[in-house]
Amino acid sequence: MNPLARMIQLAGILQFGILIASSLVPCVLNWRDELRKLSPMTRHLVWVHGVFIVITIVALAALSVINANALATGALLARSLCAFIAIFWGARLVLQFALFDPKPYLTNLVLKLGYHALTVIFAFLALTFGYAAIHAAM
Fold it and tell me: Rounded CA gap, 51 and 94, in Å?
């Protein structure tokens, strides 16, 4: 396995790790009480969108782990998928700085470390897949 394929495989494992952190979000953000304030339709849309994001991350992670060698080949389909994944995580990283104010929720050391670790992981994912998307074009 070449170094890029190893990085892609690690990126896939990290994406599974993001799901573990994501499972804490409803509790940390007190979704039970916060979502009660919404109409049933809006509340259900939030949950449905959340489930679809989880399904997407599971798929991206599985594809990355299982097909790391293929994604590292530089073939057009591989580069296209890597570009999508880079944009997905790059957009998530930008939104983290442009939209979210996590300070009220970072109430202990574990949450602070987790937040900063996720920031590093999002950057790693965007850079790794971004590199894989363009490396064959060079």
Answer: 22
